[in-house]
Amino acid sequence: MFAQWYEGQRAQSESWLHDLHRHPETGFEELRTAAFVADRLREFGIDVTTGIGGTGVVGTLRGCGASGRCVAFRAELDALPMTERTGLAYASDDSKRFHGCGHDGHTVTALTAAAYLARRRDFDGIVRFIFQPEQCPAASSLGGFPTRVVVAPVCSVPTRPTSENLHLSGPSASA
């Protein structure tokens, strides 16, 4: 089901990636990125809360059941204060900032999952899409934004682990 749906979505997801990659913002300065994410989530019919931790965004999607069970997808919004030298057609427009850590890819992965789940809504419970500011402490003078500040209270299920992490590495992470 997903693979067939994604064939029709792929160009849109790639467009999102290229847009975000061209316009990197470092920690707690992700105003354009946060607005981009919030706008997409709203387009999918997902409830949106902005300003979490400064520039963070949380989308809440309710499925067809009423169990109250909750799962969360987390992605980072920030880029790094470094120069991109990839030569990509969609390289950073900012000579001092670059999505060298792959957070643009994380964001697009979570947005793509949100688009798919919002279209289907064939699950019991709640899905939260958490887009956090400032994951890389080197990117700002304010230091890193602890994941637990956003993730732990979002689902409030104290008997279960609060997060599982997926970290992209290799070529797909930085472009």
Automatic annotation (TrEMBL):
<dbReference type="InterPro" id="IPR017439">
    <property type="entry name" value="Amidohydrolase"/>
</dbReference>
<protein>
    <recommendedName>
        <fullName>Amidohydrolase</fullName>
    </recommendedName>
</protein>
<dbReference type="GO" id="GO:0016787">
    <property type="term" value="F:hydrolase activity"/>
</dbReference>
<dbReference type="Pfam" id="PF01546">
    <property type="entry name" value="Peptidase_M20"/>
</dbReference>
<keyword id="KW-0378">Hydrolase</keyword>
<dbReference type="InterPro" id="IPR002933">
    <property type="entry name" value="Peptidase_M20"/>
</dbReference>
